[in-house]
Amino acid sequence: MNFIESQTVELKEKVVDDIKKEVIAFANSDGGTLYVGITDDGNIAGVDDPDANMLQISNMIRDAIKPDITMFVEYYIEEIKDKKIIRVYVQKGTHSPYYLVGKGIRPEGVYIRQGTSAVPASEEAIRRMIKDTDGEHFECIRSLTQSLSFSALEAEFKSRKIMFGENQLVTLGIKTTEGIYTNLGLLLSDQCVHTIKAAVFEGEKKAVFQDRRDFSGSLLQQMNEAYNFIDLNNKTKATFLGLHRIDQQDYPEEAVREALLNSLVHREYSFSGSTLISIFSDRLEFVSFGGLVKGLTINDILLGISQCRNEKLAAIFYRLKLIEAYGTGIPKIMESYEGSPYKPQIESSDNAFKIILPNRNFAVGNLIDVTDQEKIILELAKEKKKLLRRDIEERLNISSSRAGVLLKQLVEHNLLDAVANGRNRFYIVKK
C-alpha cells in the first residue's frame, strides 16, 4: 500500500501535538484519515507502543477539542511489514466549527483541510460553519467570542431574587450543554458588541446636537442607562384647572419603557449597527434594525398580535418581569396617549422599525388657536370621558352659548368628537 498525503490523508511519524489540528481540520471539512507511524514521504516507521500511543491520541482529542468530537473518531492498530501503525479515521462532524480548547472559535483555534495541510479558518468561514450547523436563528448560534462575563445580568437577577448560576446559564440558552456560549449569551454579557446611540437635538431636525451618549455592555445595562438618559430629558410641564395644578411629562413613562424594551427585545441582532434613540423638541424616536417579522403588518401589532424574533431573549426579559407576554407592548404605548390629541406612530421597512412618541407638552403648547379655556376643556374631556356642555358651563362659569362656541371650535380643530345629537350629545377626545 502506498501512503501519500492528500486532502483526506495525513501522515505522522510519531505522536505530536499537531495531531489535534489535523483532526479538527478533518472534522471541519470532509473527514479523512490520519496515520501515525508513517513518515511524510510514505515510509513505514511504525510505533514502539501502539496501545499507549493510541490512548495518548484519544486523550488528546477528548480533552483538547470542543465540541465533543469523540463520536466521530475511530482508532485502529494495523500491522504492515511487521511494523505496527495507528490509523485514526475522522468523520465530518455535525457540530462544526470544532476548535482547540484555550483558543476558542477564532482563526487560531479553528482549522480546515486545504490540500495536504491543516490551515486556520477565516472568520467568514467560521461564521458559515456556525450558520450551517446552528441554522439562521441568531440568538441560538454559538458566539465567536467565548470569554464572557455576566456581572450586569447577575445583578439584575439578584435584584429580583431569582437564582442565577451555571444551571440557569444552560436552561436559559446562554450556554450550550457542551459549555459553549451562544449569541444570546453575548448579548447579555458585559462584552456585548451591540450598542445604543442616544442624542438630544435642538428643534425638530437632526441638525444641532445638545447632548449625545453611547451605551455599551450587557443589554440590561444599556437598557437601564438609556432609560435614565431619556428620563433626564423627559421634562414636566405644569398646567392648572382652576386651583388644581396638573403636572404632565413630555412622554408617558409607560410609553418610554415599552418602546425602549421593544427596540431591544425585537431587533435583528445579525446587523451590527446601533439602536438609535433621538430626542427632538416635538418627539422621541426609537429606531432598531429588523422590520416586522414576515407575515405581520403594523395593524396586526396594533391589535396586540406578536411574533417574537428573539424568543429566548424575550423569555429572559419576561422572567425578569420587564415585559409581559402576548404582545402587550405596542397597545400599551397607544393606550398611554389616550386623551391626547396626538398619537404615537409606528413605521417599518424591510430592515428597520421605528416608534415615534409625540411630545405631549409641545403638542398642547403649539396647537393652533387653542386658548387657556380650550386647554381646560381638553383636560376635562380626558377626566370625564363623556363631556357634556353643562360640565364646561360649571367648570368655567360661562354661559351655555359660550360653551357651545368653544366646543364647536375644538371639534373644528379635530381635537374633540361630537357624539349623538340634540339633548343626548356629548363629546370625547379625538382618537
From TrEMBL:
SUPFAM superfamilies: Winged helix' DNA-binding domain. PANTHER family: GLPR-RELATED TRANSCRIPTIONAL REPRESSOR (PTHR30595), SCHLAFEN ALBA-2 DOMAIN-CONTAINING PROTEIN (PTHR30595:SF6). This is ATP-dependent DNA helicase RecG. It comes from Propionispira arboris. Keywords: ATP-binding, Helicase, Hydrolase, Nucleotide-binding. Residues 5-121 form the Schlafen AlbA-2 domain. GO terms for molecular function: helicase activity.
